[in-house]
Amino acid sequence: MRRLILILALLASPLAAVQPDEVLDDPVLEERAREISEGLRCMVCRNESIDESNAPLARDMRLMVRERLVAGDSDEEVVQYVVERYGEYALLNPRATGANWILWLAGPAMLLVAALIAGLYLRGRARAKPPSDDGLSADEEARLKALLED
Question: What is the pTM of this model?
Answer without folding.
Answer: 0.57
